[in-house]
Amino acid sequence: MTDISPRKRPEIWAVANQKGGVGKTTTAVNLAASLGVLKKRVLLIDLDPQGNATMGSGLQKTELPYSVTDVLLEVAPIEAVIQPTQVGYRLMGSNRDLAGVEISLFERTEREFILKTALAKVEDQYDFIVIDCAPSLNLLTINALSAATGVIIPMQCEYYALEGLADLSATIDRIRDALNPELKIRGVLRTMFDPRNTLANDVSQELSVHFGNLMLETIIPRNVRLAEAPAHGMPVMFYEKGSRGALSYLSAAAELVRTGKLKKGKSL
What we know:
Helix content is 39%, strand content 17%. With 268 residues, it is an alpha/beta fold.
């Protein structure tokens, strides 16, 4: 008998924060690599024109045969754009060409769903798809949030991080209401954490009160190896697998996998 059971969609995580400098790309790259270490089939999408996730995955952004821009403009099929890496996942890379793509998409109908439509052709090949978003609410980020099943929010425990919470919460709520009713906050991840810092501890407590069970137990510490790894074009667990940074991201990935069927996202 032919199996006609519905196809299971992968978890699609948009790693997003409208504030820059919170470890967003570091989180996207290292979660993808950690999921690969956990034997999951993973696709990382670099949706930031800076192309840092591409470089951090060991690919030269200036030498890509195709990039995510070609998918969004429908110049090349998504299968041709996805590249293998040596760090445990596949990658849809990015470069500076992505910076001007919004102008080209502005007149398109259904422009918020271009990425989601493209991913539908390949998503059954993956258990997890991780999208590294730019630190702004532009059409690229809207495409990511429209395609995602959940949002991972890297959050540095400092005063200005708290200031941006209302804007980020409102953004997610608007996308859920207008474009993607499946969208939920999948987890809030504290990054670059220094337990000796009193303010960091105070902000961490406030975040825990605000987000409740959406707060990941795992905390990513400040770590020299985490800072060094991108310069070598690899996630930290491939650069220094025994470092605190590598072990922390592996723990965060395992926590997200473990709680996937238990945690329920909610609006703020």
